Amino acid sequence: MNYNVIFKVPFLVLTIFLLASCAGVKDIAYFQKLDNSTERSNPQKNSLGSDSNQASSLNLQKSTVLSSQSKFSENYDLEKNSEGLYEARIKPKDMLSITVVSSEPDASRMYNLIMPQIETASTQNILSTQPTLQTYEVDNDGNIEFPVFGKIKVAGLTRGELESILHKKLASAFTKETPIITIRFTNYSVNILGEVLRPGKYETTNDRLTIFEGLALAGDLTIYGQRNNVKVLRENYDGSKEYITLNLNDRNIIYSPAYYLEQNDVVYVEPNKSKSKSSNYGAAESFGISSLSVLLTLTSIALTVFKVKF
User: If DSSP codes are grouped into helix, strand and coil, which group holds residue 216?
Assistant: First the structure.
């Protein structure tokens, strides 16, 4: 009996199993060009062409983008999500910092709410030089309580839109100049869970955060994360909730409504099949499989080096 073959067969089977479990490039790489039909023409490269050729190139660019959308699992709204810069919209439970600055301190003072502080001997100098402004919490109905004007509906507005509203309301209170109004989010955060290196809650001072910037904060996906099935749980400013599925492999992800993460979004990266299968084994089973793999490897090496014949 040829025992050399008997020992090599299990090793060969184990090697094939390990190679089969490896993920391909298409399962890992971001922004893939899945086929040649998704190529977009650049009319600027052919500046010597006629106007009709340029118009044809523009039409071809739009048609190829629209046709490529139908080939992917996600139907992104190209017309809605590809124009203009992104601006976050205010939602209930947001905390807003609103400052009013002008050359008329008496007029602007009443609109800058200073947080009450207890002065002590140890904090006297700090309190006199660094006053802290109160933040405005958006209630469940989407309103804030603003000095003099009372409740103002802010839910669904961008920072720029709210600044314009306040400029109109405060115009009569300032006679010398138009005040400078600055609005900032103070609690803009997203939650990233699942197969990432550092899952957790991440706060940012920038209210423009893409899905890839959020994943970068969490250390990117692990090798076990499903790139083509990332879930985003979102609560809109009107209280409605929705799930949005993202395919990070798809270059057209930039047209997804979840490409820009909104405040309090929950991002969940599902594990792939390899991680799911491995979770079915306990510590003892995993140790046994690892030990068997090492044993078969050492046996094969011994048979090869010493050329053992039975």
Answer: helix
Q: At what angle do helices 283-306 and 3-20 cross, to 10 degrees?
A: 130
Beta strand spans in the chain (E): 95-101, 136-137, 143-146, 150-153, 180-185, 189-194, 200-203, 209-210, 225-235, 241-246, 260-261, 266-271
pLDDT in tens, 190-223: 999 999 999 999 998 888 999 999 999 999 999 9
Q: Alpha helix (H) ranges present in 198-282? A: 211-217, 273-278
Please, is 198 exposed, middle or buried when counting C-beta atoms within 10 Å of its C-beta (0-12, 13-18, 19+)? exposed
Res 265: pLDDT: 97
Distance CA 267, CA 194 (A): 8
- At residue 263, what are phi and psi to the nearest 5 degrees? -60, 135
Residue 91: name the closest of 40, 143, 161, 146 by CA.
143
How wide is the angle at C-alpha 238 spanned by C-alphas 234 and 239, nearest 5°? 55
**Which amino acid is located at 255 in the chain?**
Y
pLDDT band (50, 70, 90) for residue 255: very high
Question: What are the Cα distances from residue 155, in Å, to 19, 24, 77, 109, 142?
Answer: 53, 45, 24, 25, 4
3-state secondary structure of 240: coil
Give burial (CB, 10 Å; 0-12/13-18/19+) of 269: buried
Q: What's the pTM value of the predicted model, to 2 decimals?
A: 0.66
Paired sense of beta strands 266-271 and 189-194, if any: parallel
How far is it, in rounded angstroms, from Cα 154 to Cα 51? Answer: 47
Give the H/E segment covering residue 293: helix 283-306
With bands split at pLDDT 50, 70 and 90, how would you rate the model's confidence at 161? very high
pLDDT of residue 116: 65
